Amino acid sequence: MKEECIEYLRKVNKTDPIIKHIIEIHDEYCKILEDEIIVDVFVCEDFNKDNQKEDTSLIFFTSKGGLLEAKNYILNDRDIDYVKYLDKVDYYQIQYRNYDLEYITDSSWMKVLVKLSNGIRIYLYAIGKNCEYLTCLLKKYFVPLIK
């Protein structure tokens, strides 16, 4: 896994055992992808019904416009979705609170919905510091592809 990805995981307060687990998942996915390289990682997190922060999934972006989502990665499940999003973005929607796209608090929250031309919807959630990273990913991967 790229060092920048590990630095990101540390910035969003992932523990060493969780980072090790994410690296294991990354390495497994690299075996499946063959000719694609994972270039970015993102941990989706949202507030649960008790208003506590909770990881919901793990997202990997690939060098060839692919997105892999590992649901329930904390539980060690291997439930993988893969989609190519390159040149297929029809629409995106951003929702946020306690965040003005610059100033972040621990209670900042952001949701991004990306709708692809094939009807697939990608939902990405972030809390606190992770909102800034989600904003960067939105600008890097989806905004340039809008039709």
Q: Could you characterize what this model shows?
A:
The chain is of the alpha+beta class. It has one domain: Pleckstrin-homology domain (PH domain)/Phosphotyrosine-binding domain (PTB) (PH-domain like). 27% of the residues lie in helices and 43% in strands. The chain is built from three helices and seven strands; from the N terminus they run H-H-E-E-E-E-E-E-E-H. The strands form two sheets. It has a four-stranded antiparallel sheet. Strands 5-6-7 form a three-stranded antiparallel sheet, with helices on one face. Strand 1 (38-47) and strand 2 form a beta hairpin.
Please write out the topology.
Elements: H1 3-11, H2 16-33, E1 38-47, E2 53-62, E3 66-71, E4 79-84, E5 89-99, E6 104-116, E7 121-127, H3 130-142
Antiparallel strand pairs: 1-2, 2-3, 3-4, 5-6, 6-7
Features:
147 residues, alpha+beta, PH-domain like, four-stranded antiparallel beta sheet, three-stranded antiparallel beta sheet, 3 helices, 27% helix, globular
- In the CATH scheme, what's the topology name? PH-domain like
- Strand segment count: 7
Approximate strand percentage? 35-45%
Share of helical residues? 25-40%
Strand order in the sheet with the most strands: 1-2-3-4
- Kindly report the name of the CATH homologous superfamily: Pleckstrin-homology domain (PH domain)/Phosphotyrosine-binding domain (PTB)
> Structural class from helices and strands?
alpha+beta
CATH architecture: Roll
- Work out the radius of gyration: 15 Å
What gross morphology would you assign?
A: globular
The helix/strand series, from N terminus to C terminus, equals: HHEEEEEEEH
